[in-house]
Design goal:
The complex is a heterodimer of chains A (358) and B (273). Chain A has nine helices and 19 strands. With 358 residues, chain A is an alpha/beta fold. Chain B is of the alpha/beta class and 273 residues long. Chain B has one domain: Alpha-Beta Barrel (TIM Barrel), CATH 3.20.20.70. Chain B is 41% helix and 14% strand. In chain B, the strands form three sheets. Chain B has a five-stranded parallel sheet. Chain B has a three-stranded parallel sheet with strand order 6-7-8. The longest helix of chain B has 21 residues. Classes of the chains: A alpha/beta (358), B alpha/beta (273). Chains A and B meet through α5 and β13 of A and α2 and α3 of B.
Chain lengths: 358, 273
């Protein structure tokens, strides 16, 4: 243990959780060292691949109540955190709270009914107090009012309080904030974590507490942690302009389309039970692009500017994991819910750290 | 044999040389999490579970963490060829599955139509012939067509898995006449498993009452709001349907016959009713 008056915290893993934690803890006056196995300017984890949706209700349909509750907490934290970060760094992270739109083609309208029925049933079963506005049914005119480009749908659902954030603006902004707050940054430095110790090729360093948020990098230490492959494409067109994340329901293919600046749209994402980082498959790219084309035919001439593949770290119950032991905390398994869960989890870890170092 | 003995006698499902207490086979896809999948399998009582390699880049064994987790259920694994469209693809995947899962059991699935995932009967017979020759225990997913089923038996299949309705539709037994024909015309020793299309326990029960030997399903459990409870419901329905079949269902009659004697009812009332 260090003798200095300021508690020394080490964070392993420079992804979304690692950065948020380093930022928050150093704001609280702790001395933070951040270790990243790859590069900090271009993160290698799922946080860089994701579309940055913060959608507790959409995720509840196929997910679990815990995710929804923590998602609501995150949704209430994001605006304050984003405002603080933007003020500190002078950069925008394009946090957007326009809600999200769920659509299905007329022949698949039963999917929309199923979606709404499952969501209502789960919300009723949980019976928790929330300030979330209810889901509203949209007809053709109401869809056109929200999304003038989408002239092909007769029915839809608006989830009015859902949000999204541009991860490719957020993660660099967080890095800048860490530099401003004198966080000790160690790139290209793979490490192992033990209680109050960071172990790397050059030996062992001591801290008051170590936080392991290495995602799949911690697979050997966390039993049952697995990678779930996701594939994403980024397309660009000036012909279709969207105002918010769109989910298109289909009996077999699920698509989300998240509009970004410079006429780009992120479309995704596959979910394949495999720890496989190889490039996107032809089949996945065809499924994603044909689903996007069915959203609006003008997407046919969109340019594919990027494809992204990564594996989401997931536990066997697909719920996030926080392990709090003396001198060592582990946060992992955010699965497909990184931006939805991170602030709520980071807040919990902040409390554990406070208990451990004071 | 007395009635009591008949009730007590173990009623096992025999597939090839293996015997099973459970007549419900379940899939491993679409669950909210692997942990819920495993709890659902347990609640269903299933002893045979089907799983797919198709999209997992199996040469690299990158889905291994999950496969090991599924293996721990202790069930007979039934690898499937879901998503294959040609015999060649299916045979290649079958060989890979046999190696990875160390079993020669195979649910053979060859898709002929992308929209309703209808089996391709020609490709199915062709692939089944080759796979039986290669020593696989082939359980073909087929339509309810009597002639196709016979061709599958001709090429060496010992078990057939006709659909109730297209995969994932939850429509139940769409063509009961065809299904009844299969049960009546195909040899009684051939186990017939209703595979696909079952959405509700009542549908599974009806198939069992009709004399089918087992039910295979996935979506109806995995996509239920409480998959574990739904798995239990299907277990009970399949057992009830099987018991009803063995007990002998009564034949429907036109006239009501009171189950308690109506001796106290005046005869002129009985006549007018």
């Amino acid at each position: 243990m260090q003798n200095s008056a300021t508690p020394q915290i080490a964070i392993a893993g420079g992804g979304l959780v690692g950065r948020l934690l380093a930022w928050r803890l150093s704001l609280h006056g702790l001395q933070v060292s951040l270790y990243e196995a790859a590069s900090l300017s271009i993160p290698s984890g799922a946080c860089w691949t994701a579309a940055g949706m913060i959608s507790p209700q959409s995720e509840l349909v196929h997910g679990q109540a815990e995710i929804y509750q923590q998602g609501l907490r995150s949704l209430s934290l994001w605006p304050q955190w984003v405002a603080a970060l933007q003020a500190q760094t002078g950069r925008s992270v394009a946090f957007r709270c326009n809600g999200s739109l769920v659509l299905a083609h007329p022949q698949d309208s039963s999917e929309l009914s199923q979606f709404h029925q499952e969501l209502s049933a789960k919300l009723t079963a949980m019976a928790i107090e929330t300030s979330q506005r209810p889901v509203s049914h949209l007809d053709r005119a109401a869809i056109l009012q929200l999304e003038p480009a989408l002239d092909w749908f007769d029915r839809g659902l608006l989830l009015p309080d859902e949000a999204d954030i541009d991860n490719r603006l957020l993660l660099p902004a967080l890095l800048q904030a860490l530099r401003q707050q004198n966080v000790k940054l160690h790139e290209q430095t793979p490490v192992n974590c033990a209680s109050r110790q960071i172990l790397n090729a050059s030996g062992c360093e001591h801290f008051d507490c170590v936080i392991d948020c290495r995602g799949l990098g911690a697979q050997k230490q966390i039993n049952g942690l697995r990678g779930v492959r996701g594939e994403v494409m980024v397309v660009e067109t000036s012909e279709v302009s969207l105002q918010r994340p769109i989910r298109l329901l289909h009996p077999r293919y699920q698509l989300y389309a998240v509009p970004r600046s410079s006429n780009q749209v992120i479309i995704g994402a596959t979910e394949i039970e495999s720890d496989d980082m190889s490039p996107i498959s032809l089949r996945s790219s065809m499924e994603l692009s044909s689903a996007l084309y069915s959203l609006h035919p003008a997407f046919a001439e969109a340019r594919i500017v990027e494809t992204r593949v990564n594996c989401r770290p997931a536990t066997m119950d697909n719920l996030p994991l926080i392990e709090n032991t003396p001198g060592l905390l582990r946060v992992n398994g955010l699965y497909r819910h990184g931006y939805l869960l991170a602030p709520a989890l980071v807040e919990q870890v902040e409390r554990f750290i406070e208990q451990q170092v004071t | 044999m007395s009635v009591c003995e008949q009730t007590d006698k173990a009623d096992l499902l025999q597939l090839f040389t293996a015997k099973f207490n459970s007549r419900l086979l379940v899939g491993t896809a679409l669950y909210p999490s692997p942990a819920i999948m495993r709890a659902s399998i347990k609640a269903s009582g299933a002893q045979i579970i089907t799983l797919s390699l198709r999209r997992q880049n199996p040469q690299q064994q990158q889905g291994k963490v999950l496969w090991d987790y599924i293996r721990q259920s202790g069930c007979q694994l039934l690898p499937n060829t879901a998503g294959c469209k040609t015999p060649k693809e299916a045979i290649a995947l079958a060989e890979m599955s046999r190696e990875i899962f160390a079993t020669d059991w195979l649910k053979l699935e060859i898709i002929g139509d992308d929209y309703n995932l209808q089996p391709d009967p020609y490709g199915l017979v062709e692939a089944a012939r080759e796979l039986v020759q290669r020593g696989f225990k082939v359980l073909p997913y087929c339509t309810d067509d009597l002639v196709i089923c016979r061709r599958l038996l001709d090429v060496g299949c010992e078990v057939l898995m006709p659909w109730g309705a297209p995969i994932g539709t939850g429509q139940g037994l769409l063509n009961k006449y065809n299904l009844q024909t299969l049960r009546e015309r195909l040899p009684a020793k051939v186990p017939l498993i209703i595979d696909a299309g079952i959405g509700a326990p009542s549908q599974a029960m009806e198939a069992m009452e009709m004399g089918f030997d087992a039910i295979l399903l996935n979506t109806a459990i995995a996509k239920a709001q409480n998959p574990v409870l739904m798995a239990q419901a299907f277990k009970q329905a399949v057992e009830a349907g099987r018991n009803a079949r063995r007990a002998g269902l009564m034949v429907k009659r036109k006239n009501a016959s009171p189950s308690t004697p109506t001796l106290d009812m005046p005869f002129w009332h009985q006549q007018s009713s």
